[in-house]
Design goal:
Distance between the termini: 17 Å
CATH architecture: 2-Layer Sandwich
Radius of gyration: 16 Å
Low-confidence stretches: none
Strand content: 25-35%
Mean pLDDT: 92
CATH class: Alpha Beta
Oligomer: single chain
Structural class: alpha+beta
CATH topology: GTP Cyclohydrolase I, domain 2
Shape: elongated
Number of strands: 4
CATH superfamily: GTP cyclohydrolase I, C-terminal domain/NADPH-dependent 7-cyano-7-deazaguanine reductase, N-terminal domain
Length: about 120
């Protein structure tokens, strides 16, 4: 099995339930794990991008979803990224997992981040 991970992608977003979060924004960190359908070592040794997934395109999908200003929940953002990645690469994928950490939470307490994870 081939697993591709895009780790610690950092974005400034305007995602939030509260108006202040959408105005000021906050930093989020996104991790995406792609589990590809069986790909043989011989196929991978051919050194052909068509035999894998271009993770630059996956990054672009995440970036475009985060840039939308009308989303309130990180759960929604994670599910949209997951769905768009799946839709674009379904023929090559076994599973997709998107995890988003939201920092700077409007919570009265000590907390580094909140994280949601969505998988297909």
């Amino acid at each position: 099995m081939l697993t591709i991970k895009l780790n610690q992608m950092q974005f400034h977003s305007h995602i939030g339930f509260y108006k202040e979060e959408r105005v000021i924004g906050q930093d989020i960190v996104i991790n995406i794990t792609l589990n590809l359908k069986d790909v043989s070592l011989d196929t991978l040794a051919k050194d052909d991008l068509n035999n894998t997934i271009n993770y630059g395109q996956v990054y672009q999908i995440a970036s475009e979803v985060v840039a939308k200003k009308d989303t309130k929940l990180v759960e929604t953002v994670a599910s949209l990224i997951c769905k768009h990645v799946w839709d674009q690469f379904e023929d090559k994928l076994e599973h997709v997992t998107v995890a988003i950490q939201k920092k700077g939470l409007p919570i009265d307490g000590v907390l580094d981040n909140a994280e949601v994870e969505v998988s297909i």
